[in-house]
């Protein structure tokens, strides 16, 4: 009895081929970073610097390709394709969807860098020879560049690829699925495991380092407000334990509860803080500088995108430590953020997904960075006499020092800490959810102890690294992993494009004109049918007699030709199906059911139109096994019904015989809801 209870409590659906190697690698890197933080960081920095200096062009080209590719898809004929079946609907409201993807995508970084980055660009020695006005413009421009469309294109590509293959063709919601058109069945083997191991380790390292730096900023703020006596390690332990506990509770409650609620609260709190600073700060200056900065960004977009600073050697170190580091950081975070965005994006069209992911967060980031960063620069020039720019080496406390120059500074500081805490929790809970999803191959109804396990692991290892000073080494390790994943993302784009081309051809493939059954032989009968509307009972009679008789006759002929066919009849609601099952490819299905539609009031009242005394019409409507839209078949005779089934069967045989359609006709990959 005791063993059964323990077995029930600790049952698991973790994939050992992914989880065990990932945990070995995670523990190994973290232990070395704790025991030998300086040595490990030194070695990793050598590797990172080699990549950034000699291979920075790979990052530049990859990120540029991602932006161009997504913009192309947004305006292309593929934009109307849904992330799911053709009739699927979004699971979350637009506001909740944007709130959740934004909280996962930017999180604590938005608070950490909103003052620190513009001030660091403004104070950088690279731009010191410029007039302070030009330095302020450059600070805003490069902040926009690093937090704009390029960052969200990285997240968007991964999210779009995973959502497409997971929801449209029923593949697992994991990184391996994004390479299905290239690897085919190999994604279920060692290559698929390697990709998911990479995703799990990258997600864990990225969240651990970000949460570690978030804890330091929260601790700094609480110390500033005299809520904690100092910024010692003991207080960091308290912060981590409390917040990770909340994160685990939120993650175990699911996306629709804890994560969605916290994300909605956080976006509202962020907007309130933004409005406070806008109103209490130099309002007119901020509105004008935003307009100017947006125009400057648009005008400089292509120059910024392709600029490798190869002709400006004095700016190369700045380029490596900012632009290339940011591209590497966003890429290293993209497995986690992309998986989470994909998880919440079912039912959106490709155009809607790209437009929302690229434009809305980008515009909000621009407004946010303008309000906080430009306010800080304006105060530094006009009020603080350089006091803020002198603190750029202490980004943990720079936000709170900036707030001291605004009215209601204490209230604003409390609000900032509250937002950072919620960002901490929303990043951690979505990270726990994603890690559990990767490690369990997106299994449903996973035991809650697995969520708790990942939360505890995050808390313990981040505290160990904080105490030993190993967070920097882990961050460097994360940046190094971005290079191979950038190449994988290019393969994602190739796979997605290949799939979309086949997808579009599959659903747009027409029916030969010569197969249209109307011959004109029964034109008088059809005219009478057109000028009257059938009742529900008459439609049911048509299905039970004409349709069923035609399908049974067709079934008999298929059997004579050695092919097994089945007739399925359902009564509530009435529908009849002709079905041919296959082991390797999708089944062939042709069905007819009772359908109804509302009749226009004009038709009911107009004497010279075929009218009736009720507002609902009933008709027999065909449907198919691949979610294509059916049509009214009420005018078909028995032979024309048989002909209609055969023309769809001919289309089916043509499609399944083409090698390029393999992934779309697999009985395992597309077996319906």
Automatic annotation (TrEMBL):
Compartments in which it is found: Cell membrane
Keyword Cell division applies: no
InterPro entries for this protein: BCCT_CS (IPR018093), BCCT_transptr (IPR000060)
Entries under Pfam families matching the protein: BCCT
Primary localization: membrane
Keyword line: Cell membrane, Membrane, Transmembrane, Transmembrane helix, Transport
Name this polypeptide is given: BCCT family transporter
Annotated organism of origin: Chryseobacterium oryzae
